[in-house]
Write a structure and sequence with these properties.
Elements lengths: L8 H4 L2 H34 L12 H25 L2 H27 L1 H17 L5 H14 L52 H4 L14 H5 L8 H11 L1 H39 L2
Helix pairs in contact: 2-3, 2-10, 3-4, 4-10
């Protein structure tokens, strides 16, 4: 039976209404954003024909979007329905989910700090996977290009890491061989999508043997190096530099997210307490 919340002390007060609609407004936006991410992710994976393939998470942005969207959809749904309908069980699921998410984020953050070198190795491994699959996945290709343009970098440790990709490997024939993606070029040169073609200087007989498949760092073509045509530093290096430079801002953003999550738990618990108080008062009054 639905108990009218218009009777009793908490039913007449405005605080419950404020908590209720604050929680509702926040979660309906959260839920809608999660729904949009889910739709985009499902559409992307369907287009690529790998809807049920979750093994490519490290090199498939759509899989990451799918997981993030599903979590946001789940939490937002229970939050806004629980607030709107004043459903205690839904509010408890919402609050519990937020607590689990918060604890999980805290655990990941602590482990990442304690095991920095291990995390760096894992990230580097996944970045190499992304380079290898660069031409195989349009979403991944766009993500890599955005990263290289944003951080003004090329490859992982340096531009020669693109030798890991079969299309850019100097020892293979093709228009892109011995080159790098256009996103490695300086920003003012990226209007030309072929600005990274044939930027490396090499001798087939010297660098394309059974034991040597790489182009040394100092074998960028002279004119390319002199004109500073491409970014030579790897993205892992520039990302680490950016992280260290913006450490306080990142910490502030993480703290802000934590405050929002704790605030959501507090609002849910506060509304739950008020609903229970109204319900108890109702049954006490009608005994």
């Amino acid at each position: 039976a639905v108990v009218s919340t218009q009777s009793g002390h908490y039913g007449r007060g405005g605080s419950r209404t404020f908590v209720k609609y604050s929680l509702f407004a926040f979660n309906i936006l959260f839920w809608l954003l999660g729904s949009v991410l889910l739709v985009i992710a499902i559409w992307s994976k369907t287009e690529k024909g790998n809807l049920m393939d979750f093994n490519s998470m490290a090199v498939d942005p759509a899989t990451i979007l799918l997981i993030v969207g599903a979590v946001m959809f789940w939490i937002g749904f229970f939050g806004w329905v629980g607030a709107l309908r004043e459903n205690v069980k839904f509010l408890q699921v919402f609050a519990t989910s937020l607590v689990i998410l918060f604890l999980g984020e805290a655990a990941v953050g602590i482990l990442a700090f304690v095991m920095k070198e291990k995390v760096r190795d894992v990230v580097e491994e996944h970045m190499f996977d992304a380079i290898t699959a660069y031409r195989d996945d349009s979403d991944l290709r766009d993500a890599v290009n955005v990263a290289q343009r944003t951080f003004k970098c090329c490859g992982i440790r340096n531009f020669t890491d693109w030798q890991e990709n079969v299309y850019f490997k100097c020892c293979n024939e093709g228009i892109e061989s011995c080159g790098v993606p256009y996103s490695c070029c300086k920003l003012d040169l990226q209007v030309n999508l072929f600005c990274g073609v044939k930027v490396m200087d090499y001798k087939t007989e010297e660098y394309c043997t059974d034991t040597n498949k790489y182009v040394p760092m100092n074998h960028l073509k002279a004119e390319v190096s002199e004109n500073e045509q491409i970014y030579e530093t790897g993205c892992l290096v520039t990302m680490e530099q950016w992280f260290n430079t913006n450490l306080y801002y990142i910490g502030g953003a993480a703290l802000g997210v934590a405050v929002v999550q704790i605030g959501g738990v507090w609002l849910a618990q506060s509304l739950t307490h008020k609903i229970k108080s109204v319900t108890a008062g109702y049954y006490q009054h009608h005994k």
